[in-house]
Amino acid sequence: MRTRADSFASRVVAAAARPARPWLHITVSSRVARFLVAAGARPAPARRGGNLRNAAWSGADLTGADLDGADLTGADLTGAHLTGAHLEGALLTGAHLIGADLNGAHLTGAHLVGADLIGAHLVGADLNGAHLKSSIGLTQSQVNSALEETNTPNCLEGL
Question: Which in 36, 79, 94, 105 has the greatest CB count within 10 A?
Answer without folding.
Answer: 105
